[in-house]
Structures are given as C-alpha cells and as structure tokens.
Batch of 2 targets.
Target 1
Amino acid sequence: MTHTEVLVIGGGVIGSSIAYHLARRGHQVLVVERAQIAVEPAASWASAGGVRRQGRHPAEAALAIEAVTHWPYLEAELDADVHYRQGGNLLVAESADEAAQLAAFAAQQREMGFADVRWLDQAEVRELVPGIGEQVVAASTSPADGQADPALTTRAFAAAAQHLGATYWTETPCHALVVSGSRGAIRISGALTSRGDVAAEAVVLAAGAWSDELAAGIGLRLPMQMHALQMVRSTPAPTGVLRPVISPMGRALSLKQLNNGSFLLGGGWPGDIAADRHGYTLRPASIAGNWAAACAILPAVGRQLVERAWCGLEAISADEIPLIGPVAGFEGLTVAVGFSGHGFAIAPAVGRAVADQLAGQPVPELDGLSPARIVEPADAQPAPR
Ligand SMILES: Cc1cc2nc3c(=O)[nH]c(=O)nc-3n(C[C@H](O)[C@H](O)[C@H](O)COP(=O)(O)OP(=O)(O)OC[C@H]3O[C@@H](n4cnc5c(N)ncnc54)[C@H](O)[C@@H]3O)c2cc1C
C-alpha cells in the first residue's frame, strides 16, 4: 500500500496543472496516468490549443481572465517552450446581420470583464488578416487571447510538478476508486492501480473523458458524454500569414497558423468513437467540411494539402461547462472533469483554483462550476459497485 496526501488520477493538462500547483504549495502528490503524458487520443494531445476568453460561459469568466493573464508568464514559470503566442482571437461576421450581432457581443464581452474586446469594421479586419475572405465584413477581436501547443504544455506542467516533488506513475491504469462508509456518506480513501493500492487523504478525479467509468464504480453518475472531436493540419504555408485564431460566427471552424506555417483546423467536427472507448475513426465528411470552411474564411488554406487528421476524446458535460470541485456525499473526492472542448485555455487557472480549494481556501471563481449544479445528490445515485 502506497500512502500519499493527494492522489490525482489522470496526467492530462488538467491533472498535471493541479499536480503542479499542489506541489508548489508543498503538498505530497501522486499522479497516476494510464498512458504516457499527452498521447493519442487524450484531449490534451489532440487539442487545438486555442487560448480564448471570447464566447466563454459567464461561469468560466473569472478563470479565463486569470488564465489569460498567466499565459504570457507560463513558459518562464515552467521553464519550457510551449509555443505560446498572444496573437489574439477573432470572431468574424460574414453578413450585415452577423456584424450587428457581433457589435452587441463585443459590448457584452467587455461587461464580463474581457476589457480588451472590441468590434472591428471590414477595413480593420483586413488590416489584421490581409488574406481574409472578401465576404468577411466585421469581427470581434480579443487581442490578449492566443494559442499554445497542448502536448508541450501538458508535459511542461508534468515536468515542473515532478521537479517540485510530485511523483508520476505513468503506464499505470487506475482500476477503481476505494470507498468506505455507506450510501449517502461515502468516503473516497484511495484507488486500486496496476502498481498496487494507494491510500490518499484526498483524491482528484481528472481522467478526462474516461472519468465517468471510475465515477460509476463508486455509484457516482457524472452528467457528461464522450465525444470524438476531429482536427485537421495542412502542409506548411509561408509563416506569418495568420496571426490571430479565427472563428466565424456562422461556421464550425477554429483556424490558426502554427509556428512551422501549417494551418490547424478544428471547430468541433465529429469523428467516431471506437467500441472500446479508447480509439476512434475519422470521418472523411468532417475533414472535407472543415477544410471547405477554412478555405472560405482564408483562401490561402486552399493552396495547401491536408497533411494529417486526428481525433481527441473529450467529455462534454450536460450544460457544456466543466464540473470542478467536491461532490456532495462523496467525501475526500474532488472532480475536475467535463471540460467540453474548451479546458486547455483555462488549465493554468483550474490548477491554481483546485489547489487552493483543497487547502481549504475560499475559491468563489469555482462557484458556478460546482458539480452541485447538475450532479444528483449521493442518495439519489446508484449504490457503489
Ligand atoms: C480536438 C480537440 C480540440 C480542442 N481544442 C481546444 C482549444 O482550442 N482550446 C481549449 O481551451 N480547449 C480545447 N480542447 C479541450 C481541451 O483540450 C481539453 O478540455 C483538455 O485537454 C482536457 O484535459 P484533461 O486533462 O481533462 O483530459 P485528457 O487530456 O484527456 O487527460 C486525461 C488523462 O487521464 C488518463 N486516464 C484516463 N483514465 C485513466 C485511468 N483509469 N487511470 C489512469 N489514467 C487515466 C488519460 O490517459 C489521459 O491522459 C480541445 C479538445 C479536443 C479533443
């Protein structure tokens, strides 16, 4: 039996940011990761890496503001190159109607505390992105937003956590959470892993899209669903064509240019999840749809070829915002799950907030993300298996 103060299950960007912030405060942390850090098909490997506040749910606003402030210093703090670039985020309108909606949207974003967001007319958009499609008539810009490499960021958090004393068990699946007590007053006291049993004062479930399986084993039903989200990367174009990350209002697309010149296309196009919930198959129609949307917004994409496509498995929660915090009736357990396709950007703030919460400090910025809003109380849940 191994003893630790905090056991984190899952070494993705969320689990590793939490481990890093806990280790920084001097806590004893063990991270149990089934695979290596940030490998296919984990969301933190597949992610588009957009660092965005625009369009966030108000419940995430405080974390998003904190994270965007933190991102410019993250590389120095973690002592790693994570390909961070503060190129801004551009939400674009392709009709007069959409342009009017965007003007109201930009004002609403400022009211949410995103002070730099402003509306741009066609000439201003063209100045920012000279090659943008001629039908683009306006945009809402969020200059402090940006992009980074998700796998590099995740590995940087993991390495920094270990540097500060956290232990990582990779290639180590967690088979089950260990419970004591009875229905309605269950205590989570550790986990069974392929390297043996672990006893912990606190357990953090951060196993991404697979968290529901471990939760089900203790009779906890997490209202979230696994999705295969598809990405497409182009062959490298000349660098410097596109600085901000672009999303059109009326199309499923996020479009950015990577450091090597390749365009990276996302936007929530679906692939198919394998029956074992560990693999996926690509949908050619999703590749074609995503590519067509990108070519319409930035014709320079059409001069390239599809170099690679892939999927990441991500959990979308019932209300499409994450569940972060303790769960009533499951003492000793904290969940950080259901990031719904936008957890990467806020990961630095999530790690800080969960570490503070575990230390007993007030964290009002997590109030709107508490599992209590949608998770049924323990006595309405099925009994532990
Ligand atoms: C295609 C795609 C594009 C995205 N684009 C963006 C974006 O532009 N901006 C943004 O902010 N967000 C984006 N996201 C979302 C973001 O990437 C995720 O919210 C975030 O990476 C989730 O991190 P995680 O640590 O919770 O999950 P994961 O990265 O999936 O990590 C969970 C880890 O738990 C491990 N694990 C699972 N079960 C067990 C077990 N039983 N025992 C031990 N280990 C286990 C897994 O192996 C995995 O490493 C995107 C997601 C996808 C899929």
Note: The first helix runs from residue 13 to 24.
Target 2
Amino acid sequence: MELTLYNTLTRRKEVFAPLQPGHAGIYTCGPTVYAEAHIGNLRSYVFPDILKKTLRRLGFQVRHVINITDVGHLTSDADEGEDKLELAARRSSRSIWDIAEEFTRLYLRDLERMNIEVPPDMPRATGHIPEQIAMIQDLEKSGFTYSTADGIYFDTARLPDYGKLARLRAEGLQEGSRVEMGDKRNKTDFALWKFSPPDSKRQMEWDSPWGRGFPGWHIECSAMSMKYLGQTFDIHTGGTDHIPVHHTNEIAQSEAATGQPFVRYWLHGEHLVLGESSRMGKSEGNFIGLQTLVDKGYEPAAYRYLVLNNHYRKFLTFTFEALKAADTALTGLRRLIAEAGGAPGDLREAESRKSMTPLQEKLLEDLADDLNTPKALATLWTALRDSQVAPEEKVSLAAFAEGVLSLGLFDFSRLEAAPLEVPGEVRALAEKRWAARQARDFKQADELRDELAARGFAMRDGKDGYELTALD
Ligand SMILES: [Zn+2]
C-alpha cells in the first residue's frame, strides 16, 4: 500500500518515497515555551502523530523529533521586538529557565492527555547553542552572512531560489507587514545571531565568535533537525503560518550551508479558528487551552475526535457545540464497540495479528490517502453499525483503528454516565415487543426480549410504556 502526502513544496499529493527504504524521519516545529499552548497550537501536533502511527502500520520505522523553542523567538517573526521568553520572565519576575521548564512540562502534559505520543527526541534550542554557532560559521565561510550593529544576518539575495516554499518572489514575501529594515540589505534577510543589547542584561545569552548574544529563531530548527535526522531528511511538519518566514528561512540557511536539499516533503496543518472565524492567538485574549476544555468537563479525547473528524489541511472552526457533538460521537463509537463485545484486552490481541482483514485494510487505505482521518472515522462508523459485519470483526477493526487514531475507543469508563443511544433497529424491535405484549402474545414478546438482549438491551415494562436500558 502506498502512502500519499500533500507536499507544500510541489503543491501536489505525492507518493511517499523514503530516503532510506523502510525508514522515515520526521521533524515537527515545537512550541515556544513562554505560555500554555492553545487548542489551535495543539491541533498542529495531532497530524504528525497520525502520520507517525500510519507509517508504522505501513511497516516503517519512524524517527520523530519535536523541538522545544526556549530562546530566540521574538514577538515578531521579522526579527523585531523582544524575545518572548525574556518578556514573559520580566512580566512575571520569575527566572526565564523556570518559565521554560514550567511550560515545557505543561506542553508535555497536554500531548499526553491528547494521546499524542511524546517522541524520545525533544531537543531544546538552549541545549544546542554550539551546533547553531557552527552552522552560522559554515554560512559565514560560504559568504552568506553579513554583520550589522545588532547581529549576524543571512543574505537572502545570495540564494536564487529563496522563497520557493512560499512561492512568492523575494520582494513579495513579507508584503503587507511592516518590515523594520534597520541595517538589513534586503527586506527578507533574517537574523542568525543577535547581539545582547548594550543597555540591558539578558537572562539567556552566550559567547560567540561575533560577540555575546543569542541565536535567531530559525537557525535552531535547521541545526537540530539536521543533527538528529541528517542533512537531508524525509518529512517536516508545522502550521501553515510557518510557510512564508520560518520554514522559508529554514530551507534557505540549511541548503546554503550544506548544498543539499533540506527536506523532501513539507506538510502543513491549517489553522483552527474560533467560532466567529477569529484566529486565536495568545495575545488576542480569547484564550482556550486544553485545560479550559477539561475544566468544562470534556475529556481531551473528545477534542482529539473533533480534530480528527476534520482533515488537517482544512480550517477547523471550533465551537463548544462542535466539541459537544464530537464528545457524543466518541461515546457512540465506544458504545458500539462495547456492544460488539469489545473489552480492553482485545486491543492487544488485534494488534498482534499478522495479516489485515479487508476492513482494516480499507481503514489503512483511508489514512494512507494524505492522512484522511474523517474518511477513516466514517469507515469505522459504517462497519460498527453494519449488522452484516460479525461482532468480532468489528472489535478487531476498532482495535486496529485505535492503534492509529488513539481516541481511547476501548475506554468504557464514561459509558454508564452517558445517555443511552438506541439504534433504529433496536427501537423497532422494542416497539414490536411492546405491541406483542399489548396483544398478550407473550411467546413472541419473550422471543423479542431475547433478540434485544443479543443487541445489548434490556426492556423494562411500565404501565403506559417501556424503558430501554443497556445490559451489563
Ligand atoms: Zn521550526
């Protein structure tokens, strides 16, 4: 089975062909740890998780790296403003290292709560200063840098294909946004190393061949991704907002430094928008983090369901009604799995199975089609509702789906508290039995009671009507 992925570099779906057969390297731009991640940020870590788990199902060995940005990310993408962490530290009068540690911990907590597998490699920018300096030195040797009063800059005019990812001519790249030129030669040039300001002391600063200071934001991702995955690697992921500046600059400095192509497949996730189609950002006030949802009584898996029910390349409009609907749907899936006889133990059994059933194959095909999770969920729903599909086949499909979708499908702990959902056919049987009882046809009524029990329902007869309950 082939995996096709939409590559931002070519603007096409392409068949994934790894550099090394059977292996896949993935780099995901991680969080800047100066505040809690909002749910829109968290969305962009779900599709790399699906990608990783799909690749594994397809037989690949995957190495996944997510970095932690704890220095150098300024309040503006255009090398202006203050370092986000220095600013947060000053505002809270806490140590910058404390802040970085706290929000790294909260980020990892959110990943775990959303069933996003935490990769073993999560390098921090501050832990890779020598690598970043070495890379800037390489660029300096090949004449790609120049020095200004406030730092060492990358000369984008030296690179003929600068901006190829965003497909904008250099002049157009930051059009519309005010660009402080300072001593920059070209508007798209960017800082590789910034000098510490002469009038104030930074909490994070390092010595370098050019003077005391700190690395620019983009250089960390090039230095760390190449350190862990090689000069050229398979897949790089991030949000669409990274295309024009951050990823464009990662490509420029990496390819200028090595003379090799940097990344073969660029995958970008689309934004989440809040109800009124306002883009959410930490500075915009209407902050919703995962904890906000948990405080409102939602389990993180419901949010994951909402995310997976929308394709990662499409805008997702977040509303609490949509989250509620996702929560109900997830409960519905779990109930169908429980009704088919699923138990937590089945999960391991189905995973150890060597060959795929046709339904499992169908579900994997959906995922292998540019990670089409809405389609995979539809396949799961259809099979679980189909009376022609044997219960054990339903359970094995659900276990297979769980291995990639990671929704806690076999977590039945919330089922009892949830309102009972009665499938149409069960309701029809119940009505038939009620009519039989009214007609004093107790033989048929008993037969129908057994049929209902086979579907996991019991019927409590009242004077004027009946109540359906779930059988334990
Ligand atoms: Zn990055």
Note: The chain has a mean pLDDT of 89.
